[in-house]
Amino acid sequence: MASRLFPTRIASARAAAHRAMAKAALFSNSSAAVRLKRYNHHIEKARFLESREVLS
After folding, report:
1. pLDDT tens-place string over residues 5-51
2. d(CA 53, CA 4)
3. Residues 43 and 25: beta-carbon distance below 8 Å
4. Residue from 25, 20, 18, 23 nearest 49 by CA
């Protein structure tokens, strides 16, 4: 699914996009629990992408 949202194969660009989505999640019109869950999801994905880029 992520490949459809982010067609680029550059992990650093995808990580930056996930960091932007994490920031946007903090300011969304949702409950605090939902905002935190979305934020953590996107930060975790960004960290994973960055760590995968370092290993290759």
Report:
1. 555 578 888 999 999 999 999 999 999 999 999 999 999 999 999 99
2. 20
3. no
4. 18
* Owner of token pair 């932007």: 20
Question: Domain count of the chain?
Answer: 1
Structural domain boundaries, residue 39: 2-55
Residues in the chain, overall count:
56
> 16's torsion region: left (phi>0), alpha (psi -120 to 50) or beta?
alpha
In order of 4, 6, 7, 8, the CA distances from 1 in angstroms are: 5, 9, 10, 13
pTM: 0.78
- CA–CA separation, 44 vs 55, rounded Å? 17
